[in-house]
């Protein structure tokens, strides 16, 4: 499996990506609002004619996610009586965009993606995930076992892979850590930076020596070998031996289950109670474990994710710019 390198990035390029998506969304949602004026109410949300669209963050192989995601939706259908349609968008930002356009009703959002979606679209978190009894998780930096690289200092001036520009553990927190420790942006600390995609793709890029190091989510409590590398085990069985962890730090609020603005309150409440009920069944526990290594679901609030805003500021990502609420500053050429 190959990971094709993406262009060298800068903070401005990250802002441009999210701003462009936000501009497209503004056009789409504006048209939808005009079309909705005076229109009949139509089928009920959650009916066969208008199923609830549940989308999953593409942090691993799409087909693998759907293998657990679709049966989970089937259990929810039995618990709530609602009909569901499952999707895995092509990236973190398209998922945020889809929620704002009312094309996704409920989403399993990464923490940073949730922070952006909340700012832009008033998305509401209804539950947080739990792993090994914890509502937080670490991130880690990985290298090839025979690289001779032992510390983050050793990676200075080398090639590095992040995952997605809206990922908390394989972009935001590692980039903020580098800024705090070295007072350097990631693209100045490393000689070349790539955005590989999901955690599995970062791990495979390191395994294939396409990059010297990468960032993924770290191990859950009590499960030292359950981390971003394990997402690639089906493709690369020896990845846990050939790719090793050199740094693990910080605690990130776990990923969310969030709903779009405007979803009827009774639907939101029934969905929340249904998810909690399903998460306590044997089959539900297995599906959540297979989906994102989730052990359970628990209450969560918007305030739980406020630390992410601070990290975003450290790496020069303005949440309001990323969310498309205000324009990115215009770059000027040096004289």
From TrEMBL:
GO CC, alphabetical: ATP-binding cassette (ABC) transporter complex
Xref: Pfam families: Phosphonate-bd
Organism: uncultured Chloroflexota bacterium
GO BP annotation list: transmembrane transport
Origin: domain of life: Bacteria
Protein family (similarity comment): Belongs to the phosphate/phosphite/phosphonate binding protein family.
CDD domains from the UniProt entry: PBP2_PhnD_like
Signal peptide, first to last residue: 1-35
Statement: the UniProt record of this protein carries the keyword Signal: yes
Protein name: ABC transporter, substrate-binding protein (Cluster 12, methionine/phosphonates)
Keyword line: Signal
SUPFAM superfamilies the record matches: Periplasmic binding protein-like II
């Amino acid at each position: 499996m190959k990971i094709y390198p993406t262009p060298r990035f800068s903070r401005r390029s990250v802002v441009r990506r999210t701003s462009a998506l936000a501009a497209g969304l503004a056009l789409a949602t504006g048209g939808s609002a005009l079309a909705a004026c005076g229109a009949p109410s139509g089928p009920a949300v959650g009916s066969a004619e208008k199923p609830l669209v549940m989308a999953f963050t593409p942090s691993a192989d799409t087909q693998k996610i759907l293998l657990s995601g679709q049966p989970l939706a089937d259990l929810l259908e039995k618990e709530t009586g609602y009909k569901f349609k499952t999707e895995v968008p092509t990236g973190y930002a398209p998922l945020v965009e889809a929620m704002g356009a009312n094309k996704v009703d409920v989403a399993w959002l990464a923490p940073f993606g949730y922070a952006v979606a909340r700012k832009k679209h008033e998305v509401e978190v209804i539950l947080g995930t739990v792993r090994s009894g914890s509502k937080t998780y670490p991130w880690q930096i990985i290298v090839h076992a025979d690289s001779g690289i032992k510390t983050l200092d050793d990676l200075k001036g080398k090639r590095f892979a992040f995952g997605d520009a809206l990922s908390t553990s394989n972009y935001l927190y590692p980039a903020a850590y580098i800024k705090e420790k070295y007072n350097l942006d990631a693209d100045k600390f490393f000689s070349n930076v790539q955005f590989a995609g999901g955690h599995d793709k970062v791990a495979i890029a390191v395994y294939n020596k396409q990059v010297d190091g990468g960032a993924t989510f770290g191990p859950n409590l009590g499960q030292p070998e359950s981390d971003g590398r394990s997402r690639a085990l089906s493709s690369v069985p020896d990845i846990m031996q050939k790719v090793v962890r050199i740094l693990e730090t910080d605690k990130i609020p776990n990923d969310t289950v969030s709903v779009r603005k405007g979803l009827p309150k009774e639907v939101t409440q029934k969905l929340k109670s249904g998810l909690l009920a399903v998460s306590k069944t044997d089959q539900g526990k297995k599906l959540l474990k297979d989906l994102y290594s989730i052990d359970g679901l628990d209450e969560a609030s918007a305030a739980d994710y406020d630390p992410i805003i601070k990290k975003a500021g450290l790496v020069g990502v303005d949440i309001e710019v990323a969310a498309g609420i205000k324009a990115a500053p215009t770059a000027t050429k040096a004289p």
